[in-house]
Amino acid sequence: MIIKDYLETDEVTKILLFTASWCGPCKVLKKTLQEMAESYRNDINIYQINIEENEALTKIFEVKSIPTLLFIKNNEIEERLTGTAREDLLIEKISKLI
C-alpha cells in the first residue's frame, strides 16, 4: 500500500501500527491489538507497518520512535500514540473514533 491508500480509502476508521521485528514493546502492543481486533472488525481496520521495510511511510507520517499508533478517521490523523498502551486506553481511543 502506498500513502494514498492509507489515507484515501472508503474505510472510515483505521489504525496504523508502526513497528519493527526486533521491538519488544511493539510485539506486546501488536498482540493486544490482535486480541481486540475481533471486537472491532466491523468498525476499524488495523495495519501493521514495519519501519525497516517501509521507510517512506515512516518519514511521511513522521514516526520518530516505536511503537507508534496513528488513529485515522475520515482521512485525517485524529490521534498519535507512541509507546506501549494498556487495553483500556486503546478502547478509549477507538471508542472516540467509531
Q: Care to describe what's here?
A:
The protein is of the alpha+beta class and 98 residues long. The protein has one domain: Glutaredoxin, CATH 3.40.30. 37% of the residues lie in helices and 27% in strands. It has a four-stranded mixed sheet with strand order 2-1-3-4.
Describe the structure in brief.
The protein has 98 residues and is α+β, with helices and mostly antiparallel strands. The protein is built from four helices and four strands, in the order αβαβαββα.
- Beta-strand portion reads 25-35%
The CATH class designation is Alpha Beta
Q: For the CA atoms, what is the radius of gyration?
A: 12 Å
What is the number of strand segments? Answer: 4
Structural class: alpha+beta
Query: What's the shape?
Result: globular
Percent of residues in helices comes to 25-40%
| pLDDT averaged over residues | 87
Per CATH, the architecture is 3-Layer(aba) Sandwich
CATH superfamily: Glutaredoxin
Low-pLDDT stretches are: none
Question: Can you tell me the number of structural domains?
Answer: 1
Distance between the termini: 23 Å
Query: SSE string, helix = H, strand = E?
Result: HEHEHEEH
In this structure, how is the largest beta sheet organized?
4 strands, mixed
Strand order of the largest sheet: 2-1-3-4
Number of helices: 4
> Remind me, CATH topology?
Glutaredoxin
